[in-house]
Amino acid sequence: MTKTTRPSALFVCVHNAGRSQMAAGFLRDLSGGAVEVRSAGSMPAEQINPVAVEAMLEVGIDIRDQQPKVLTTDAVQASDVVITMGCGDVCPIFPGKRYEDWQLDDPAGQGIESVRPIRDEIRTRVLALLDELGVEPSAVSA
Predict the structure, then answer these.
(1) CA-CA distance, 11 to 21, in Å (whole number)?
(2) Residues 6 or more apart from 92 whose CB is under 8 A from it?
(3) What are phi and psi of 91, to 5 degrees?
(4) Pairing of strands 8-13, 81-84
(5) Per residue in 2-26, is it b (16+ CB within 10 Å) or e — as a string?
(6) pTM over 0.90
(7) Which residues have C-beta within 8 Å of that of residue 142, sequence separation ≥ 6?
(8) Which residues belong to the active site?
(9) Could you read off the pLDDT tens digit of each residue along the chain, which spans 142 residues?
(10) What share of the chain is helix, strand, coil (3-state, %, to 5)?
């Protein structure tokens, strides 16, 4: 019997408080556990952006129990795909690792009306990522 390993993804942004947390929340939810999900920041904030939490609750995903985490070399090495969101060259680069940079507006300091389109764009990109990883989305949320 062969052991299959779950694909893994790491979402990185500066503060690990908004974009990367929303992306991780969507990937955890939409993959139904079929993908190992990590998120981190180059300069983590004290807490997750409350407007990002509110925006995710609107679509039935609760990220309130998450905490910003510092980006480590181990997290990058352990991930199949590393997706950066505005952290530039801070993310360590390892040969043979797959990297993507998602250009997304930063939700920091924005109201809910401005964060919703960012959330929706992240959801679209996470669905595309699932397709690329060959993972069928579980019950697709709003």
Answers:
(1) 8
(2) 73, 76
(3) -70, 130
(4) parallel
(5) eeeeebbbbbbbbbbbbbbbbbbbb
(6) yes
(7) 58, 59, 60
(8) 13, 87, 91
(9) 444 589 999 999 989 999 999 999 999 999 999 999 999 998 899 999 999 999 999 999 999 999 999 999 899 999 999 999 976 656 667 777 898 999 999 999 999 999 999 999 999 999 999 999 999 998 654 4
(10) 35, 15, 50
